[in-house]
Amino acid sequence: MTQPTPSVATSTVAAVEAGASSMLRRSLQQLLAFAGLIGIFIVFAIASPAVFPTYTNVIQILFSAVVIGLLSLGATLVIITGGIDLSVGTGMALCAVMSATFIVDWHIPVLLGVIMALLFGGLIGLVNGFNVAFLKLPPFIATLAMMMVASGLALVVSNKRPIYFDQSSGYAHLSTGSLIPGVEFPNAIIIYAVAAIVAGVLLNKTLLGRYDLAIGSNVEATALSGVNVRKWMVIIYAVAGLFTGLAGVMISARLGSAQPATGAGYELYAIAAVVIGGTSLAGGRGSMLGTIIGSLIIAVINNGLQIISVPQEWQNVILGVVILLAVFADQFRTRT
After folding, report:
1. Is 93 in contact with 261 (CB distance < 8 Å)?
2. How many domains does the chain have?
3. Which tens digit of pLDDT belongs to each residue from 88-114?
4. Closest alpha carbon to 37 in 60, 57, 61
5. Quick one: pLDDT band at residue 15, thresholds 50, 70, 90?
6. Which of 6, 76, 154, 170 has a CA-to-CA distance to 122 between 20 and 30 Å?
7. What SS3 string covers 212-230?
8. Residue 275 falls within a domain, yes or no?
9. pTM of the prediction?
10. How many Cα atoms are found within 13 Å in the side-chain-facing hemisphere of 118?
């Protein structure tokens, strides 16, 4: 049996060391994000000890993180490719309107209507992916156009009015109900947890995740290795759209109605959660665990600032500063 040449052995050792260094850096990023979450929680707990750290408020924090979290799971897959998706907010609103249209106007059974709303979200992502991969549109422009299209369609389909669900249909139970009798633990939190596990498995244990990371790291090298980059880009955007569809179902179930204008600004929160969680805007690096932590950080900050009666305009300023710090940290990590 031939022995590897010194140059090959050296290259192998270097690759192993680089992989170990990357894993260590990723673990450190997640640890820092988690430490930041705990630190922010402690600050607000000290500022409002009678309200903030209570069980009821912690559940409220988790509940408020669901919609942003679901959107950010899909956004993570897209941002890892080096792209961006600005359509998740209005896409969510359109999926909520379509869910109400299927169930309320077309009288489709709730379960089938929910599945159709999820698939409609996948269709939005599919169109985004086609525009980026085959038409070669910059992701910013392609998804900005979809953001405007989805916003307009949500108003057109709903006739510029909210669509209310029949309380007897059990649709609202999907979000606000509880599987555990007598315990305040909304189903939406469980659904978010399951979706996060699915997203984590997709990113870490499947071809989709492997190609997602490879495309973001070096799209040319990935194409030269025989991967059909355009096909996988479309799949990645479509899968991300499924999470947008699920967010649409969750927010409409929480409100008991589909509000056609409810998605404005959610894309910023979703992208912020992804960046705060350590996913690189340059692509090629990211984790679902970090994104979950990022969504919780945003939920904790919003909840804590409201409890201590910080005006809304200052809440936006503080959250903007947090995002700037997260982006700066990402750029610093990239340079080092």
Report:
1. yes
2. 1
3. 999 999 999 999 999 999 999 999 999
4. 61
5. very low
6. 170
7. HHHHHHCHHHHHHCCCCHH
8. yes
9. 0.91
10. 14
